[in-house]
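REVIEWER CHECKLIST
Item 1: Sequence provided? yes
Item 2: Single chain? yes
Item 3: Sequence as submitted:
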Amino acid sequence: MEGLLLFLALLGSALLLGLAAVSFSLVWTCYYREGLGWDGGAPEFNWHPVLMVTGFIFVQGLAIIVYRLPWTWKCNKLLMKLIHAGLNSIAFTLAVISLVAVFDFHNAKKIPNMYSLHSWIGLTAVILYGLQIFVGIAVFLFPFAPASLRAAIMPIHVYSGLFLFGTVIATALMGITEKLIFSLRIPEPRYSDFPDEALVVNTLGVILVVFGVLVLWVVTRAHWKRPAENTSKLQQNVGRLDYNEEGLVMADESAVEANGEAVARKRNPILDEAGQRSTM
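Item 4: Structure as written out by the authors:
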């Protein structure tokens, strides 16, 4: 891999920042707020930021970056697809649980639902993310979709995944700011007084932004993409093509290994004629 040391440095930094974000969310909710619980009170609401940061941001970032890990490039492609789909499914599940927590809290406290921009964009992102997972599994994981459909869906799938990841981070920033404004007011220290809690949560926001930047940088570098599989494999069954995560057509497991010289002859009649002479 070109620039392996830089890749490892950025990857390690992203992982550390992701874990730091989860830790900061736990410190915020357990030390400065009322901890975690499921009783319709503030502790139940606190699951919302913790699970969103853990699942919808950190785990989703892992799902996006998993194809870039060079030590997985020799793994079975189906296994990598399952890992990618599994991580995304975990992120979606945690996001849904966090939504249940916040709706349950609002209903118990008679607080209106879905009135803020944060809630509008956040719920839309969760719905679109669920749709993204469904389409990805249906089209790329199971071998039923035709090759032309996979080719058409792949760039949309890649773009929408990165778009949703960035949207989720932006929505999280709106959410934690909204929570600080509502929580830090008289008789408590106001947000404008910049108490310790504000410092912790603002730092959490900065960590989320840097984590997102690192993940997006790593996955958009062309020289760090998963390399195409052996292009000398010929298709044995025309109806069974697969696409890697970059949208390249690859023969599936039923393809047979073809001789590189035979492929070259097929592409160049002159070489084919020379090859025939050498065997006579």
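Item 5: Key structural point noted by reviewer: The chain has nine helices and four strands.
Item 6: Recommendation: ____
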